[in-house]
Design a protein that fits this description.
elongated; 8 helices; alpha/beta; 6-stranded mixed sheet; 24% strand; 5-stranded mixed sheet
Amino acid sequence: MLENLEPAKKITAPPNFRPGVEFDGSFGTATTPGYSSEPENFDEFLISAGLDPETIDVIPPIRTSRWQQREGGDWLTSYRFTFRRKTSGIDLPLLIAEAKKKIKKPKLPRAGSVDKCLVILWSDLQVGKVDYRGGTPELIARVELLQERIVDLIKREKPTRAILVDTGDTIENFGNAADLQQLATNDLSLMQQVDLATTFAWQTLKLLYEHIPNNDAKHITYASVGSNHCQFRVGKQVIGQASDDWGVFIGRQLARLAQEAQLPIRFLEPQPDDESLAIDVFGDQFHILGVVHGHQVRRPEQMPDFWRNQAFSKAPIADASILVHGHWHHVRVTEMGSLARGTSRWLIMASTLDNGSGWYKKATGEDSVPGCVTFMLEQGIDFTGTIRKL
């Protein structure tokens, strides 16, 4: 017996190898027999399995198993693949499956980890005005209730900062279009109007400072802009600069009070010849809050065009992501345009806090219910138009 003669080793196909087809009518898997050379396609195999190759799409990747028939013999390769039945139109299940593979789910911030700013639209108080909802006693009661609601909102939502926005018409004044009516109905003198309006705002600022703790020294902001009721006028004619305005003046008195009380509150007003301003809410240029009163146009429907046109004059609000205004005494939220990051800009019109406008109600049948518009901005998270009227 020859010493170098050994029995041939038994070489078998892979243990899991089993040629065949599994098909549910839409999707299937196939394992081919072993091929000694790479086939041009799998048509013959699919036909032998009772399938029409013209109605089948092979889905990559294709996996292979390779083994030798016997020692020194041919190497064989089996192919394993998935397939689907072709559709005449869009294959929605496939598209959805492919889309899910590509989607990167955003990481949602943990509760309490996001810096939140409460924005309060302090709009159209018209202090001193008497109308069908009453006079100064009724306004005082309305503001006191509003202050309680603001504190309740803070306790529930826990913002880390706040902006009290005086959108204008803080006092009624005496020199507007209906100046004779103002002389007959106002129940406060001009000085008393300014005094009470300052008191309202100062009370509210102190509440915000007390109930919103923050390590940032100036986490409370007060912003004011010029408006038609607060303009410096003589004989109905506007006099002086845009900053010659009772609302802006009240903001300056509040700044003095805060300084004397050693409350590090930030106060903002427009440039002397501007009637608008913009606030970088978190200091990262993500939320840019624009403020204007709204008397610059004749109808609220014109505000979107007014805002667009501000880009040509490089106005403060040209690059705002959110523009707020008052003047029209009712709530309106408008989604418009887009920002460079591909999200919407928002135009928010504030409701009134005044005692009503009887002349407008009689002329149109419309009635503006008093209230204060508020909304929350979160650092690094796009605003989506949600407001709350208190």
